[in-house]
Amino acid sequence: MSSVDLLLPLLIAVPILAATLPIALGLWLDRTGWTVATLTTSALFIGATALASIVYTRGADVTHTLGGYSREFGIELVADQFSMLIVLLVTAVATGVLAYTRRGGPRGNTFYTAYLLLTAGLLGISLTGDVFNLFVFLEITSLATYALVASGDGPEAAVASLKYLILGTIAASMYLIGVAFVFMATGTLNMLELADAIPAAESQTLIHTGVAFIVVGFAVKVAQWPLHTWQPSAYQQAPDGVTPLIAALVSTASAYAFGRLIVTVFGVEYLTAMPNAAAVVLTIGCVSVLAGTILAVIQTEVKRMLAYSSVSQFGLVIAAYGVVIAGRSETAFIGAAIHLVGHGLVKAGLFLGVALVARSYDARTVDEYAGLAKSRPIAAGAIAVLLLSLVGVPPGVGFVGKWYIALGAVQSELWPVAAVIFLSTMLTLAYAARLLEKMYFTPSATAERPHAPAPVATDGGDAGPDDSAAEPARDEPGAAIAAIRGDRSEAPVSTGMVAIVVLAALGAVALGFAGGTIAELLDPFLTEVIN
Amino acid sequence: MVADIRPLAAVLVSAVAIVLIVASHRRPNLREGWSVVAALAKFGIIVSMLPAVMDGTVFAWSLRESTGIQFLSGIDFALRADPLGIFFALLASFLWIFTSFYAIGYMRGLDEHSQTRFFASFAASLSAAVGIAFAANLVTIFVFYELLSLVTYPLVAHNEDSEARIAGRKYITYTFFGGGVFLLAGTAMIYWLTSLVRSGPTLAFEAGGMDALAAAAQAEPVYAQAAFFLLIAGFGVKAALMPLHSWLADAMVAPTPVSGLLHAVAVVKSGAFGIARVILEVYGPGLIHDLPLDVPGIGTVGLNIPVAIVAAFTLTAASIIAMRKDHLKRRLAYSTTAQLSYIVLGLSMLHPYAMVGALFHIPAHAFAKLTLFFCAGSIHVETHTDYISEMAGIGKRMPLTMTAFTVGAAGMAGLPPVAGFVSKFYMLLGAGSMGGEYWLFAAALLLSAVLNVAYFWPVVYTAFFESEDRHDAKPLLEFPRGGLVESYADRSDADVAADGGQPTDGEADRSDPERADADEDGTDEYAVDEYPSDAEVPGGEQVSSVDHHGDFDDHLTGGPPADGWPRRSPSTETTWLMLAPIAVIATGAVVLGVGPDYAVFLDLARQIVGGVFGLPFEELTAVPFDRLVTEVST
Predict the structure, then answer these.
(1) Domain that residue B340 falls in
(2) What confidence tens digit (pLDDT) does each residue in A255-311 have?
(3) Which end of chain B is more exposed for a tag (fewer CB within 10 A), N or C?
(4) How far is CA A82 from the centre of its chain?
(5) Residue B220 lies in a domain
(6) Does residue B9 belong to any structural domain of this protein?
(7) How many domains does chain B have?
(8) Is the separation of the CB atoms in B341 and B272 below 8 Å?
(9) Which of B64, B72, B150 is opposite residue A403, by nearest beta carbon?
(10) Do A442 and B192 touch (CB under 8 A)?
(11) pLDDT tens digits along B245-267
């Protein structure tokens, strides 16, 4: 048994140590980074799977106290049913994205150092049982992300990274101030100790203040409207190979941490009794759902559109937390957990698909996706499945998360929230269908391309240039695509890249059938924290 | 309940066919072969369950029992072949066989693009439709309902031009609003309501209504009413209840086999079918009748009354709109809107007779309307004519097609001996037995029959009894109400004299506003292909197509050739691939009308209604209605 809990520190320490290897080995060898990262993340995935099987079959938490100090003084790592979902997602996505970066870049050993540090930070967030330690891992994650975003091309990436750095640091400070207030009131930092100490604390005002700071801090980290502004530019400017990782995991881990604080540290019962707590969280979530979608619909860049979509999808998760607080609803919490995992997987797949398209055709705007279904049927199919999962078409995973969240809202009789959640299907459809329609039902290379191919020039500006330019394009899209996209068409898209997008799509559908299973897996955890 | 894999097999057989269709996209004959094989296999599987189901067996398949996977906590993903399910599945799969032949003839006749996507989506639609038929609970039906919206979208947007894309957008917006918002919200509310009572949360259909829901409705009547209307609205979108109907007419840009099987049978009937499930097996007539709605100023009415009013309004209004549609497929679409409301109206009258009539109207309308659409499509493929005003004398050119059209039109109007008469008769009996304000609904039914004649007779009349150079404007229909002094004959005669024998030229600038629109829309096509019919029809050859799929765009290309319609015999009017399905389906409509007792559908309908009220249908007639609902609800 003692050997099992060693897995916990290993899951965090191994990627941190491995992060030094690409640089160290880089002294002698070029391009070791990918190999090191692949070996490390694969090992992490195997370790996480082993740990998960123990946690879920045994039905009890696996804990490890660092250095043998008891949890009142030391730092504790905890793997329970909730955190293992996120650990599995993190390790799986971190491994999967490497299938793209092998050929798609960014290359270089330092990139993989940051990559592994980011993974370590995310695993730390998921596994820690200590609120200050959580801050440390949030910072490790953020610093690695700043570096990764800044490695994108051009000055815009640097600006995006700087914006993220400023807002991210403010958010982390907010969280730290909140923790400080809570520490003043209770004298402990361990999550389980806090759970006992908070309701008993004498100075409730300090704790209320702490909660307020923590909520704002996480609203920034999770990118909730109107504090989301760092997120679209960070997602857009980050290198294509990095965006899937960041989009799928960074905000997800923060949202997980927020959920952890709600159910484990403060406790649902305590927050229910706290005035306005539920209303604030619900409002943040619902407003973000609506605002994020509206902003997503008006975007022309696909990556930005998906970034704003994340604002609205995390809005659903935060709204679900609000329902958990307001109605003490287990169902909504299951929904939040499933939506975190499902959204992470779907967004990773979508951004990988976007990266693939950008790499093959340099197509980045919605209009440039016209006719994609004909030129890349498999990738387009996978993107379509992922988009539909995001919309919540059953049996995709998006439906499962939404069902539990909506059911939780209905059971708690929070009708406006339920209405927002049901309407979110339509709102998501508004931008997803735009992309689908472009890919499948808009012939490529029609009049909306300003630099249409040669025929206009050859027939000397006669009355019919419009017709003659449009007609051949409609009849043989292949030729027109080749004319426009020709210069980049030799850029190789590896089988691995296509395979990983397809795998994500299949995963999104497979998880759609796992709604009952995940609920069962979470059941012991929920009975502990909510009842 | 007998555990059996066949309900699943019936759903999956066409899903498997999708893979085969896509895989053989380079070999059209093989690809279409898979469609036919899948259609036959699906029908075979469903028929193999029919005798046992008619004896009272219910075949069930559940994901949890067969694989151990729980779909959602507390909710199983389950299929069940009960009488109501097999009723709809049998109809859809039977008609798919003939539609797949017809689709081959149609798509090849027009040399359509993206045929692989078309046939794959078509097979997927049938999978989803049978899934809806066999769904055993509200979540399962929701899953298939959403999938049906999804897989029919490529069929609506098939043309890939801006008109098709706009229609597609409208289609997917309406259907997802119905499914993803209303239906899902209603389902979640039912789950919550039933979790309030001791018998636990459930979503499974039960003949006569869910007991748990009946108990919960006593505690939370307002929420139970809200959930009822959410569910009805959710299914009502696909059943084209006003004001949620306007997607249907726009969806007519789809190729005609789609308009025929999906937008007259499988898709729209899945909405009507869903309403049947909600009324018969979620709430049950007893609960609907006993959960009164307090309307200020009127007093309390049953939950069914608002639904019946909407349906009665829809069927009247849609019939009136249909009269003024010159585009044949659009006229048929509004007729579909009206006829679907017959079904909803019959169901919402709650009387056993009305219910049997409503259920029997599902196949009765399906056979007749499919005939009409097939005829419209075959006219389009052969002559590129879509507008009724251009069909004068077309009876010479397509004698059998127009005869079948007449049969279908008679069915719509409910004239004996076509099937529509039987269903309408039962509904009138039901309305009469209920008495009171239900007489209004009976009046709406009768009025609608008259209107049906009013909008279908001109088509038949102009086809058989008018000729290309001598036909009049139909005063009620095409011109401002009351008619104009001028008529087609005057105008076209003058034009022919003036410009030397190109009657279509004269038709291009007629004064009807809809035509003016059509001209504007159609200018692009006009430049490409001005008079394809003039160019090729006189030789007797089939018109080769540019890209005409049956809406405003190709208005200018239709109509009779310069020297009038050539006279054809039934054997040469079109290909047997289209003619044979037309003949079979039209015959089916008559068989259903002449011998409903020998065709299986009426028996099934009686069995379903008997199951709902818990008595054999023959004994139901002896029990007064009030006792019927109160005894059932207890």
Answers:
(1) 304-572
(2) 999 999 999 888 888 888 888 889 999 999 999 999 999 999 998 899 999 999 999
(3) C
(4) 16
(5) no
(6) no
(7) 1
(8) no
(9) B72
(10) no
(11) 888 888 888 888 888 877 778 88
